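Summary of Year 1 activities. Much of the first year was spent building the evaluation harness for sequence design. The harness presents a backbone, in tokenized form, and records the residue chosen at every position. We chose the following record to illustrate the format because it has been used consistently in internal testing since the harness was completed.
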């Protein structure tokens, strides 16, 4: 069964696109975490980063160059933004079609709290 992202890319489900080419598509997240929250998705359905192969390198590189262009187009390139890729359950992945979150337009806050190994004792 096709992922929700594949269905958006195919036009079966509406999406508000900000970028699309032969390798990747980008559209607004329907549950944004920041003022700007774009999902950048390969057009080829790949479940997780663990499933990426050497043949996917051009597509993965395109995800980053698309992110740069989108940030410039949305006027957030100079102030900054964060790119996030989650992998599997412990990484927080919710949709099993790899994707990059581009978030910004306002401060995004600290990445993660500092690790304290004493808290595990």
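For this record, the design step produced the sequence shown next.
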């Amino acid at each position: 069964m096709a992922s929700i992202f594949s269905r958006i890319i195919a036009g079966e489900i509406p999406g508000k696109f900000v970028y699309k080419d032969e390798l990747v598509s980008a559209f607004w997240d329907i549950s944004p975490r920041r003022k700007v929250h774009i999902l950048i998705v390969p057009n080829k359905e790949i479940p997780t980063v663990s499933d990426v192969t050497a043949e996917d390198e051009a597509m993965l590189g395109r995800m980053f160059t698309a992110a740069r262009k989108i940030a410039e187009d949305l006027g957030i390139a100079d102030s900054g933004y964060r790119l996030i890729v989650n992998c599997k359950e412990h990484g927080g992945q919710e949709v099993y079609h790899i994707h990059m979150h581009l978030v910004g337009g306002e401060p995004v806050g600290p990445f993660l709290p500092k690790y304290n190994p004493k808290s595990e004792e």
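The beta strands are 17-20, 24-28, 36-42, 81-84, 100-104. Quantitative recovery figures across the full test set are reported in Table 2.
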